[in-house]
């Protein structure tokens, strides 16, 4: 751990001259002092005036604001990240609410689509399914040793947000998630690695694009894929035995399988399944407090029963079991709707393994209207029959929560809880303004991407962001602080409870209060999550370091974006 929230350890620099300025991990440009410039052979290589970090941050913020449009802002921040990592994190940390939508959803989606066009510099490690024998060499090429890595975020780019397969461009979701880890929870960025598991792409426009930078062939078959993933996990665990392995944005055919294969073998979690499950549970628990209706009395419809949707259902089902329901009773509270309509037991091959548990018995839906195009029971009919109190969108289908559906839901429940979780912004199942309009301001709304507050009848409704960003940074920090050997279900539940607790009791009773703590408080939320996760890891016996004071250990593990003293060696 190299947390420097106390007095930072000196940074030992062997490079000299231009090599110092070219390395974003050590470069501080105009903030190098006269003494440091002399020691590092920088005299004359930077303009004479020495700036403070505050002055640098002011100028960088002005430059950021001058960029025309979000993609230009993203390119600007990436360039800053590539130039001076500490200043990048200082800036993002100071303007979290304004910059998270640039380094993360929604703009990261645009950056991923345009990756091969906008490409400037590599970041992270690119592993190729065509050369599994190079996995070790490539991970070693990062220059990091066995004790140097706390966290790796890996993606295969198949299920980026709700925009699908973007091949090698997916590296930017790993980079974006890591930026959130550091900005929100103070994970030391020098001890992290983004990894692209390039197994090809099935998107014709990438395969046909001469600029495309990834492997220009279709995605590997299952056996080849599995062997490659295994080479990655085995090698990463061997080279970096303390690293938490985070899986991001895999397709539904692989996400759950990969997690299940490794979750009891290494310290790992899937953010889309488990992080999303935890943040969704936190939002629903706030909704439970706001409505006064106990959790077991809710009827829950999940629209988009894929990686995230079933992850969400699983986490809620476990919470219901925790309230005393049997697994069968808890499962019976869910109606999951996917591309063929309501999951029903007669759908055979169309059901994925992880959906089977939620398939409703056919005789319970006798007489329900079917849509021949699906050809199952559509969302509107499910809502009409079930009268849900909670409606969750994890489908990536923009506008799927139509006025008719929402009005029907609101006709039978006082305060409908509606979580339109799909990203990026344009794929939300409904906008908060519409949801509030159609429910006369009664809906308890949260969205996956940020939305501006809604003004209605003189009242301002702040919209909570039901995004796993409220969970994974703190989960990671808590796990790192106690060197957890596993991520357990109870650690995720502790994270959800910690997020829910951050939404004050007084607040949730108000009509217009957000269901989740705001992004501007993300650092505090992440710290609370980290403490809860670390405590639970200790209780569960998976902490390899058991601190006397967990809170102090979590604080000590935080990295802050300050320039440490320099030691020229
Ligand atoms: N807010 C958050 O923290 C998170 C949000 N998400 C969002 O959830 C969405 C889904 O992500 P994943 O679960 O990873 O993708 P996925 O591909 O695993 O799941 C999407 C599911 O939606 C289903 N679907 C597609 N078209 C449909 C239709 N017309 N009607 C009903 N279902 C349909 C698919 O069959 C699939 O099962 C994305 O937009 C993603 O951004 C995902 C993870 C976290
Ligand atoms: C937030 C996230 O992980 C997703 O949309 O995939
Ligand atoms: Mg994701």
Automatic annotation (TrEMBL):
Q: Name one Pfam family in it.
A: Malic_M
Q: Which UniProt keywords apply?
A: Metal-binding, NAD
Which residue ranges does the record assign to the Malic enzyme N-terminal domain? Answer: 81-263
Q: Which Gene3D superfamilies match?
A: Malic enzyme, N-terminal domain, NAD(P)-binding Rossmann-like Domain
| Listed cofactors | Mn(2+)
Please state every residue range assigned to the domain named Malic enzyme NAD-binding.
Answer: 273-538
Q: SUPFAM superfamilies given for it?
A: Aminoacid dehydrogenase-like, N-terminal domain, NAD(P)-binding Rossmann-fold domains
PROSITE patterns, per this entry?
Answer: MALIC_ENZYMES (PS00331)
Which family is it part of? Belongs to the malic enzymes family.
From the Swiss-Prot or TrEMBL record, give the protein name: NAD-dependent malic enzyme
Q: Which organism is it from?
A: Streptomyces albidocamelliae
């Amino acid at each position: 751990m190299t947390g420097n929230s106390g007095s930072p350890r000196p940074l030992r620099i062997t490079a000299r001259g231009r090599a110092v300025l070219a390395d974003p991990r050590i470069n501080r440009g105009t903030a190098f002092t006269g003494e440091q410039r002399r020691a590092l052979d920088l005299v004359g290589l930077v303009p004479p005036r020495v700036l403070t970090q505050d002055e640098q941050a002011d100028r960088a913020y002005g430059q950021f604001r001058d960029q025309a449009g979000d993609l230009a802002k993203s390119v600007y921040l990436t360039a800053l990240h590539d130039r001076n990592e500490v200043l990048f994190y200082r800036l993002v940390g100071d303007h979290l609410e304004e910059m998270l939508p640039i380094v993360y959803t929604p703009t990261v989606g645009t950056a991923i689509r345009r990756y091969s066009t906008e490409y400037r510099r590599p970041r992270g490690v690119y592993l190729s399914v065509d050369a599994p024998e190079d996995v070790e060499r490539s991970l070693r090429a990062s220059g990091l040793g066995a004790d140097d890595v706390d966290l790796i975020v890996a993606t295969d780019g198949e299920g980026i947000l709700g925009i699908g397969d973007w091949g090698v461009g997916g590296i930017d979701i790993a980079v974006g998630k890591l930026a959130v880890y550091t900005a929100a929870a103070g994970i030391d960025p020098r001890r992290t690695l983004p990894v692209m598991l390039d197994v090809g792409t099935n998107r014709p426009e990438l395969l046909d694009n001469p600029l495309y930078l990834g492997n220009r062939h279709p995605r590997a078959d299952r056996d080849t894929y599995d062997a490659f993933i295994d080479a990655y996990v085995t090698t990463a665990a061997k080279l970096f035995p303390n690293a938490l392995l985070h899986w991001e944005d895999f397709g539904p055919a692989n996400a759950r399988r990969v997690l299940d294969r490794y979750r009891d073998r290494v310290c790992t979690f899937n953010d889309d399944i488990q992080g999303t499950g935890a943040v969704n549970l936190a939002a629903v628990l706030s909704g439970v407090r706001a409505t006064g209706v106990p959790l077991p009395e809710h009827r829950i419809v999940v629209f988009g029963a894929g990686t995230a949707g079933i992850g969400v259902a699983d986490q809620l089902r476990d919470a219901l079991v925790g309230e005393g329901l049997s697994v069968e009773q808890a499962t019976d509270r869910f109606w999951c709707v996917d591309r063929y309509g309501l999951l029903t037991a007669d759908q055979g091959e169309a059901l994925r393994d992880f959906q089977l548990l939620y398939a409703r018995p056919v005789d319970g839906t006798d007489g329900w209207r079917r849509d021949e195009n699906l050809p199952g029971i559509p969302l509107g009919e499910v809502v009409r029959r079930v009268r849900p109190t909670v409606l969750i969108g994890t489908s990536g289908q923009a506008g799927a929560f139509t006025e008719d559906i929402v009005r029907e839901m609101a006709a039978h429940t006082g305060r409908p809880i509606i979580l339109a979780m799909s990203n990026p912004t344009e794929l939300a199942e409904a906008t908060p303004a519409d949801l509030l309009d159609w429910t006369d301001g009664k809906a308890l709304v949260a969205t996956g991407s940020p939305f501006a507050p809604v003004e209605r009848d003189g009242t301002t409704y702040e919209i909570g962001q039901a995004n796993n960003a409220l969970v994974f940074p703190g989960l990671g920090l808590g796990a790192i602080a106690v060197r957890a050997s596993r991520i357990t279900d109870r650690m995720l539940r502790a994270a959800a409870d910690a997020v829910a607790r951050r939404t004050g009791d007084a607040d949730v009773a108000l009509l217009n209060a957000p269901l989740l703590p705001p992004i501007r408080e993300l650092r505090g939320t992440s710290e609370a999550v980290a403490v809860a996760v670390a405590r639970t890891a200790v209780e569960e016996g998976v902490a390899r370091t058991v601190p006397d004071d967990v809170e102090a250990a979590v604080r000590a593990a935080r990295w802050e974006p300050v320039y440490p003293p320099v030691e020229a060696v």
